[in-house]
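pasting for the record
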Amino acid sequence: MTLHIGIVGCSAEGAALCYKTICIEGAALLGPHAHPEVSMHTPSLAQYTRCLDAGDLAGVGELMLGSAHKLAAAGADFLICPDNTIHQAFDHVAPRSPRPWLHIAEVVADEAVRRGFRRIGITGTRWLTDSDVYPEKLSARGLEYVRPTLDERTEIGRIIMDELVCGIFRPEAVATFQRVMQRLKDEGGCDAVVLGCTEIPLIMSDANSPLPTLDSTRLLARAALRRATQKTA
């Protein structure tokens, strides 16, 4: 028996990629077509964005906890959230959660250490890149970090919320990310970049990025697979 994974979803494209990765890559650990049991709960994204726009992290946390309790009732042994931005509310959530969590930024930071990176660029929504979600976890592991400029954060945030979360993938968006990542490399001295929105891996990867990428979506899914197959809650 493996552990039951609960996915606290937020935006559809990122949650779907995380779910799909768990289901497909589970076969490498468990045999053809096999994967751990997975349940997902997702309130309306509009509820999250209203809280984020208002700076209401307690409200974000309550939405996450609502999903957590529903997933616990469905039998989930532990929880993951394939959304970097709403991890700003994690300290509100974790002490009251009915189940333990994997923290997406901790998973990414651990991978950065494993791969020997030292200075990490952070991309994601404006909410995320303005926050301490990644700086806190990277610094705790002795890693340096660089945020995009304010203008870059604004444009990347627009692309994410107006395009990527809606399943719109444009060459112009790829070019914007490449330009920002190249500057993070050349001017910021970065040796890797976090794809810190779970939709960014839908258009960016090691194949088209000027920097090695840390794919938060798939890294979280793989960490959940390892946890589930270790059979320890």
